[in-house]
Structures
1.
Amino acid sequence: MKKVSIINGIVAPLDRSNVDTDAIIPKQFLKSIKRSGFGPNLFDEWRYLDHGEPGMDCSNRPLNKDFVLNQKQFENTKILLTRSNFGCGSSREHAPWAIVDYGFRAILASSYADIFYNNCFKNGLLPIILSEEIIEELFTLSSDQLSISLEIDLEKQIIQDSNNFKISFEIDSYRKYCLVNGLDEIGQTLKYESAISIFESSHKEKYPWLFKEIKI
Amino acid sequence: MAGKTLYDKLWDAHLVRSDENGSDLLYIDRQLIHEVTSPQAFAGLRMNHRLPRRAGANLAVADHNIPTKDREKGIEDPVSALQIQTLGDNCDEFKIPYIPMEDARQGIVHVVGPEQGATLPGMTIVCGDSHTATHGALGALAFGIGTSEVEHVLATQCLVQKKMKNMLIQVDGKLEKWVTAKDVVLTIIAKIGTAGGTGYTIEFAGQVISAMSIEERMTVCNMAIEAGARAGLIAVDQKTIDYMKDKPFAPKNEDWKLAESYWNTLTSDTSASFDKKIILNGSDIQPQVTWGTSPELSLNIHDKIPRKNPEYLNALTYMGLNESTSISDYLLDKIFIGSCTNSRIEDLRDAAQIVKGKKVASTIKLAMVVPGSGLVKKQAEAEGLDRVFKDAGFEWRDPGCSMCLAMNADRLAPGERCASTSNRNFEGRQGQGGRTHLVSPVMAAAAAINGYFVDVREIV
Ligand code: SF4
């Protein structure tokens, strides 16, 4: 996984709460057996005027001009600003895959659904939780100007713009450690192989029936 | 010393190690696998030259994409066909137990798990699917995970997790007849909101929950995720133990005795404390119909659709509803009885009772019943339920997720209005532009007969 340290970029404001994973990447695209290529279908139903299906050439599809990602000033955005309970619904990791594939590196929201939040970290995407007041302030800033740019410093846990906006944010230290060092979580867990084996033997002694293999 | 909650007990029994920063390594007893969220996990294993740690601790079955009719013709959509083929191939390669489409035991992963005894009380259970919460009804810690975590569990049999907080939702008293588990859980979600349980594991308790069958408890836990909680739990009691008895993969003989005595400890201690506690009265709960595009936007069948405040505007517009009208004023186009929330044998029995001897309203374009598994289907046929449905004008299909998420051919056309026993009413969930109202199986059956929503209690 790529290391994450400083993210610098334009903020795209998506002014909605409860954005669910099906809005992020509609189910028809979940039939893919790959983990890349979902970017053109991110927010598909909001972004295009026609109905999207896998395999379509998205560059020819009619755009919904009102949708934030279709507006000129948010081209090349790297930071998604949204509201509460972002990523609710299904566990599909296709949601963060699509967000990353589109080019986003960080999300700013007042809360996230648990599974989505977890999935972001596995894909080098930084979901930051900010208070509702700060989220509101950022929405106001974004609507006052054509677009705002922010710098997110993960190591220092600071977000700032080139003017007076500067705030700190919280993040779990293990997750930060993995992001900053670009660590593969499975590799990390495998370091504890002996602890797992010891646990497994005692678990087996206590609950032997859990170790019967399923045979179809 | 304060006692432990059921969640604490399950967590502690699976704790491999703790980190100073509060993230734990948790041992996973069972992983369920389906076609949509697993191909990239297997690809990851392959890429890193890793093998499953305990292949036989997994169980795979295809459900999301699978057709619900004319199966003998194969899968028409080549993209779906490839995904299902890939699941079979991956299971072959990595020696993962797999129930193929042709097998009578095939069905929705959350119906198949308990039915086969592949999911048991006291287990930690994961699946790349948010409705894994369902299995919490057995007194297991079960939660949905993403694809990277699927790969993580395959490779290590463990997951890095942070412990959630404890919430207790207690439903006291008694439900009125024809008020169901679905109405209970929709009422809970309407009360606490779709993010109300975020960061918590919810234990459901109280007289109403105790009085429920295991199937009904699964309906409640299934939708814990719709209240934002990754896991829902219900304490083990005699019903749980009776339910597990003789399930194909449940422990046998000596193992059964050991398991039974362990399972009997799987309740929250009376002295346990919860971070949050919510109490409802069962007799206040009325049949529910969701009117919006989030499961929390639900109303009692006799209540009016709420007024347009700005927050509701999107939902009302999308759903084609007017404020202050009654939900019964709107004609329905389709009826869907199925999904991991409500496709078990009891659901079908209940719905059949309402339908028996009646006809689906002529204005309904399609009414369908999709049993949760091949075995549910067989059982229903043995009881003659298929005839009841077919005589009334319902289609009787093969098991799968079907129109719960419309990844296969079963879906709503834009603007179509559907009474659905599934769990999500998000925009486009059942097909682009489709309008979903979540209800119980008996409410869906009553709606099929009338062509619009009615209070099921008034027609029986
Ligand atoms: S029935 Fe619906 S909710 Fe359940 S697993 Fe299938 S798609 Fe998910």
2.
Amino acid sequence: MSRKRVLLHVGTPKTGTSYLQDVLYNNRPMLRAAGINYPADRFDGQFLAALDLMRLPWGGLELEAVGAWDRLAEQTRAWNGTTIISHEILANASRPQVQRALESIGHPDTEVHVLLSVRDLVRQIPAEWQENVKHRRTVSFRRFLRQLQDPAREGKIASWFWSVQEVPEILDRWAADLPPEQVHLVTVPPSGADSSLLWGRFAQAFGLTGVDLDLHVERVNPSMGVPETALVRRINRRVNATVEPVHYRPLVRELLAHRTLSKRRTSPRLALPPEVWEWARDLSEQWVADIRSRGIDVVGDLDDLLPAGGPPDFVDPDRPRPRQVNHAALDAIEALLLEGVRLRETEEELRAQVRELEEALRRSYLRPSYRIRERTVRRLEESDTGKGLMGTYRRLRGR
Amino acid sequence: MSSPTTARGWAWVEHILAGGTMPWAEFDGTPSGVPAGFFPGAAQLELARRVNLAGGRGEVVRRILATGAPARGRQEFLVSGVAETRGYGPMPIDPAEVPDAELIRVGVGVLTEHLAAAVPPEQPATSRGRLSRFRGNGVLTLPLAPVDRLLHDAWVTRARRGPVLPWQRWTVRLARADRVPPSMLFVSRGEHWLATGFRRRVELSPAALPPPIDAGAADLVRRIQPLLGGLLDREQRDRLVAQVLAPWLERRTGVRRLTLPVEARAWAVGLAERMAADVRRAGYPVRGDLTVLTEIDTGGPERPPLDDVLAVTVQVLCEGWEKR
């Protein structure tokens, strides 16, 4: 008989979570055959459940999340094996929300494991700034860093960053009620490590090593360099008031950031300025000491959370080299032009279809009874009294 | 309960749950029993104390302490003297120092959960609405008022119907995109009205202006709307708005109105001039002076004062939505 347990992966963002979730979603039948359930009706099903749990509006997406957590919890309770729940924004949950989540999936009667994937702060901070820029923010890198370093943590940027990135504090909220052997920390290997190493760690932590899974996924969330991020920030400043989020998402985030600018791999990469790098290293050392003292299961190496060597070369994204930004801007213009061409061609095809439909409609209107009615309406609408009669007729017909 | 300070903290929780109003800094005591569960956040405890001060009942206080703050913002306010101080993590604070905005956030979460749990039943449809279209004298009277007042009413209407940006951002965004709320497109409303039947007339009059809705109350409803979107389907939400939030808001009149942010004022004056010219061209009779459209008030606050919003929040937590 299979053992009933829940693996609850609660963060953190920018640690390969999208890849993991896509693999889990795409391989649901194989997983179920192995006794593992990844309950999701759509690829972002568990994201919606997390929004619902945390009462988190998300640009209108929350409208699709009504009751999503309760449904997820019900599916979890009904499965007699291992259930995996994974979304990085769960790191943001408050204590009352954590309590509701754990109780709803059967804690303490069911064996619940909390998993947290983590990456070193010196990479997380610039990555989160870039993520902010890709979500329409216009904050400069320096100001972003100042806000993170302010102990008051006021404002949406700092409060969100620390709520989803401060590892000891996330463990305090999510794992206070669990024995250390049911709490697992997966560390992201340092830059330059073999790309399969992280998946190996995930597979070990989630008990997937013996399962034959297709590891190819379509969705990627690649990072941009310094001039590209600076360019998107400038675009945000220009268009935020005039381009609605529903258009920004496909045109700026998807087309420009993900499909165009992130392909420019030779530009300088984002990094921390030396003094902030040292601050982040000191903070990381305190976190590592805290995590060690908890005695939880570490998959990987806690030293992965400490930056190796000294501060890397810093290229200020608030003062990028104009030539590099210009080149990135030309790529952006080309991508937008090609998209414009594609849309114009689509528009022309649609116009042709409309013309055909209009012609078909016109032919059907040539019947004599229709022409008599049409003539009557036209005559009525030539006078005020006739207009009034038509208005009354239309109201009575509910038109 | 590992230390005397933690014990004092749990005693304060008991004090608050029992209706106590003493601030944390002045409190001393020991708990009567062994506590269970997590220690409530400083924002929840301070809001509960304010509710007690305003005469709230124990049930609502229990709900406040058990509800996590919704939406974005500081996730945890740890209580100084209870939470361990470390070299990292959120700094514990005296609950009295939790910003009003965070107390409002917790209150809004509690109110939204409560609203969503008690959606009024569907009311039987009547023929009244249908028949009312044929009543009256055939005159559409459009409100004649300064353009900022018309914008304020349009914003309140949007807040009543569903999610909308805060007043300041909403008006600046309208100004930058040069967009006009549909209710202020007088000529297109007039033309539509004239086309709906015979013996129709359009006029402008200050008498058509509804009483101003209090900005604090409107802002509370504005904050609740996006959360309701994640808790209820459209039909339930509409019912809740029609039967609870809209009637409540209509009773909150005449207290405080917001002024336009500086960035939107020049646009608003231009809009007022355009509206006046359009009305003159359309030839609608005007009861009063059309220049009133441009008489923008610049004396009030540009955003709802947080203490006003908090006061309304606490009042509704204590009294519910029905009373005024």
